[in-house]
Design a protein that fits this description.
206 residues, alpha+beta, 3-stranded antiparallel beta sheet, 5 helices, 30% helix, globular
Amino acid sequence: MINNKPLWKIEQIDNINLNIDFLCDFEKNEYFSFKNQKRRIEFFASRILAKEFISDFLGILPQEISIKNDSNRRPYVIARDKIFFISLSHRGGFVGVAFDKDFSPYIGIDIEIIENKRYDFLKEYMPEIDSSNSNSLLEIWSIKEAVLKLLGKGLSVDMRLIEVREEKIELKGILKDLAESFKISKISYELIKRGDLISCICWVEA
């Protein structure tokens, strides 16, 4: 077990008590700003899961925790005297949260569901693998999405700037420059497989 491995939790939305009292005023405003009911529920469930998980870790009430987004849409927590980044993901009726127990800002989680996707499209962004195996493609896709979240970037950045070879993550171009500016020398990851769910947690080695 790696000592600085982050804390994470993935749960089905149906198993979460969607109590709106867990949201603070600006979170409620954001919740009601979504027109799509599915998006509302995903937002709602991810915040509640995160608050319950973080409250257990910090020993405080969920109502003492607020979750906001920075200018790059990265979620961060305000909990009493602590402010730290977390990572959230939702897909196919599941939501997930991850954060570093030492409150490092470099954390990423992604959830994917095995389903009928355009695997020909996915392969365009994965030059490191030569396989039509849908599970392998989704695993690499999930790793890359988690890495982009760790670096505070979204899918606007070309995924081909991330290569996963022999369990090592290599960054190129602007992502390599960004990691160097953050003094990141190594990104570790763990894949989680549960039924039709494939997920990835990424973090930075100390």
